[in-house]
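quick one, 157 residues, struct below
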Amino acid sequence: MIASKIQAPNIGKAGELRVRSELMFRGLTPAACDQDNGIDIIICDNKKTIQVKTSLKAHYSKKDYSYRYSFSIRQSQFRSSRDGLYERVHTRKNYSGIDYFVFFCVEHDIFYIVPEKEIGEKVSFCIATPDKERKYNYYKEPVSKYEKYKNNWDLLK
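---
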């Protein structure tokens, strides 16, 4: 099992390396950022910036027979502005220079490439359980507003 072989501080770095590898296989040139300013990767070809979030294992839900990965964007908080819209207020890291978040769901080897402006304070993804693992015939496919970003590497080109 992957989770038992990697130490917690290395999970994020392993995710970054995996994303850089994917980008290279897709013909892009990623550069790592040594300074921790919120940007993990810059794509040299087009100067797009990426913050990588990695989750090793999903929580299984018996209710809808799906796996759920949850990610928290802890460094930011939201507040309501005077005109009723929400604006991002940063506490420690400033994600304003980020173009995309890449969420890596390790157990299922799935990536969600999501524009920064689409990200809330918490993000979760549902991955359907294969038919053979379901206990009952009734099943409703989980729908995520992020489904259009699933393995959508073309956004980074």
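The domain at 8-156 is CATH 3.40.1350.10 (Trna Endonuclease; Chain: A, domain 1).
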